[in-house]
Automatic annotation (TrEMBL), chain A:
Native source species: Phytohabitans houttuyneae
Membrane topology designation: Multi-pass membrane protein
PROSITE patterns hit by this protein: ABC_TM1
Alphabetized UniProt keyword annotations: Cell membrane, Membrane, Transmembrane, Transmembrane helix, Transport
CC terms in the record's Gene Ontology section: plasma membrane
Entry similarity comment: Belongs to the binding-protein-dependent transport system permease family.
BP GO terms, sorted: transmembrane transport
Name this polypeptide is given: ABC transporter permease
Classification of source organism: Bacteria, Bacillati, Actinomycetota, Actinomycetes, Micromonosporales
Length: 298, 291
């Protein structure tokens, strides 16, 4: 048995251990120690983030006078946010990031579902070869192909377009997505597919029949695809650097360089750059964790 | 039989096309490009000249070896701090002393991983800024402390990854195994080191190799903090920033596509050889320890 059996692919998220295995006779002190340590690390993880968010709602003097204090009636200010929207083109950056991230995720979902279904379903000698070809992509960072990618994008007249980013990010996301979807498709019972075929469904219809069963896989793929795409700095810097095609991450990076003295605006920009993904992650953390550990962890 | 081939190709073709054109071909082409010289406008086959130049020309080789050594240090710090802390957190989360709260802790601990490095870099630069008075010493301005400081920022961000890998591996240990240990009178500590730890051991090899790939492809955190000329005095220059600088140029350095492709190829080979070595030598042996 492998450490993470693929058979669990379609199963719901792991049940917390305590409930699954019955309680062990544990001492109160031990439990407190575990909570204490975890609280400490959790604080270490989120306190810096909270510090940024907190101070983004303060006036400049308050940021420096009392960096750890909560904003009160005197020190509360949203001027930073106002200035971010006045000076930067934040709304445009957001739209670009959204287009690129949603576009990449949608394309990755469609392409990897088709490919993974076929690689699991049609057991011919070519299938494992293709699967291996995709798997190599999980290991090798696409960034190292930047020189040829740039030449390609220029010759196809895609330079400084969001399309170029979507295509490159899809190529980057597909290997892991295919591997992940394959583990979910392996768990789909053959009977279901055969029943469909007997009723006269074509191959594409048969694939559609299985979709409800691999829905957790789709959610996992979506959540592991989005994160690196939204946060990437390298390709926006190289392929779409102009102000009208900038993504949030690149926009924030340039904002940091430009307005080093306007702390409220800076902190507001950083907060705005981080919040959507934190919210998304908090909602989809289970799928994300499943995707991550099943895609690479096996 | 034939229809199965046709279906396989039809279904995989779209993914294959995008992946080949924008990932596989560029990677292969990058290596190909590193054997050419196009400085004069015409592309000319020069064999290994670019590699020889990179390794031996006094100006480029000094930068290259410096970046390589820094990259090894960047990797080592990740391995030595991130993995043990990740293990501790995973062990705490699965200690059997938590109920619902495990999911809450897990999510909180993973939040830094969801941030962009731009945000992470700035947060930590602000916190260790002498202006805010948390640290008196300019950690990023000192050649000796700059790289460890940046590495630890990155560890802070990505500790959630080994944590999740080890956490899911620990959860996958069959209940009866632990039951048996408990009946035999093993306490939590003994159970962890004698039963759970050996069972999750193969995960460490995988985490190490992923960390290696990831750190040798590193760029963002250094670039976000220091730009393409990673100071002070190149003490935080790693292969990724060297690649960016060679390829794009920066103040005092002209852009050189062939040499950029050469640096990329060297990184590529470093990753490829190590990964292949890992899978051939270590992974198989580790597999035998699984249940």
């Amino acid at each position: 048995m492998s450490v993470l059996a693929p058979a669990r692919a379609g199963a719901p998220a792991p049940v917390p251990e305590a409930r699954r295995r019955g309680r062990r006779p544990s001492t109160m002190g031990g439990t407190l120690a575990v909570h204490g340590l975890l609280l400490l690390f959790a604080l270490l993880a989120i306190a810096p983030v909270l510090l940024i968010v907190l101070n983004s709602f303060k006036t400049t003097p308050a940021i420096f006078a009392d960096p750890f204090g909560l904003p009160d009636r005197e020190t509360f200010s949203v001027a930073g946010y106002e200035r971010v929207f006045e000076r930067g083109n934040f709304a445009a950056n957001y739209r670009n990031s959204l287009v690129v991230t949603v576009g990449t995720t949608a394309l990755t979902l469609v392409l990897s579902t088709l490919a993974a279904f076929a690689l699991v379903e049609y057991k011919v000698r070519l299938a494992p070869v293709l699967a291996a070809f995709f798997t190599i992509g999980i290991m090798l960072p696409i960034r190292l192909g930047t020189v040829p990618i740039l030449k390609l994008v220029v010759s196809w007249r895609l330079m400084d377009t969001l399309t170029a980013l979507v295509l490159v990010y899809t190529a980057m996301s597909v290997p892991l997505a295919v591997a992940l979807m394959m583990t979910y498709f392996r768990a789909v019972p053959t009977d279901l597919k055969d029943a469909g075929r007997i009723d006269g469904a074509g191959e594409l219809r048969t694939l559609r029949l299985t979709l409800p069963l691999v829905r957790p896989g789709l959610a996992a793929v979506a959540s592991v695809t989005m994160l690196p795409v939204w946060n990437d700095l390298w390709f926006p810097l190289i392929l779409a650097p102009s102000p009208e095609h900038q993504t949030v991450t690149l926009g924030v990076q340039q904002f940091v360089g430009q307005f080093l003295n306007d702390y409220p605006a800076l902190l507001a920009a950083l907060t705005l750059g981080a919040v959507p993904l934190i919210v998304l992650f908090t909602v989809f953390s289970r799928q994300f964790i499943q995707g991550l550990s099943q895609g690479i962890g096996r | 039989m034939r229809s199965r081939y046709r279906h396989l190709l039809a279904f995989t073709l779209p993914a294959l096309a995008v992946y080949t054109v924008f990932a596989a071909y560029p990677l292969a082409s990058s290596i190909y490009l590193s054997f050419f010289d196009s400085d004069t406008g015409v592309s000319r086959w020069v064999g290994f000249d670019n590699y020889v130049y990179l390794f031996t020309n006094p100006t480029t080789s000094e930068r290259f070896w410096n970046a390589l050594v820094n990259n090894v240090e960047f990797f080592a710090i990740h391995l030595l701090v991130e993995v043990p802390v990740g293990l501790l957190l995973a062990a705490l989360l699965t200690s059997g002393r938590l109920r619902r709260s495990a999911a809450v802790y897990r999510t909180l601990l993973f939040i830094p991983t969801t941030l962009s490095v731009v945000v992470v870099g700035f947060i930590w630069r602000l916190i260790i800024n002498p202006l805010w008075g948390l640290v008196e010493h300019p950690l990023l301005g000192d050649e000796r402390t700059a790289l460890p400081t940046i590495s630890l920022m990155s560890v802070w961000q990505y500790v959630g990854i080994p944590m999740i890998f080890l956490y899911t591996a620990l959860l996958a240990i069959p209940g009866p195994v632990l039951e048996a240990a408990r009946i035999d009178g093993a306490n939590g500590w003994t159970t962890f080191w004698r039963v759970k730890f050996p069972l999750i051991a193969p995960q460490f090899g995988l985490i190490a190799i992923l960390t290696y790939i990831w750190t040798f492809n590193g760029f963002d955190i250094v670039f976000a903090l220091n730009g393409s000329a990673p100071g002070p005095n190149y003490s935080t220059d790693i292969l990724g920033t060297l690649f960016y600088r060679t390829f794009f140029g920066s103040s005092g350095q002209v852009s050189d596509l062939d040499l950029g492709a050469t640096v990329a190829s060297v990184i590529f080979f470093l990753i490829l050889v190590t990964t292949a070595g890992y899978f051939v030598l270590l992974h198989r042996r580790l597999k035998s320890y699984e249940l």
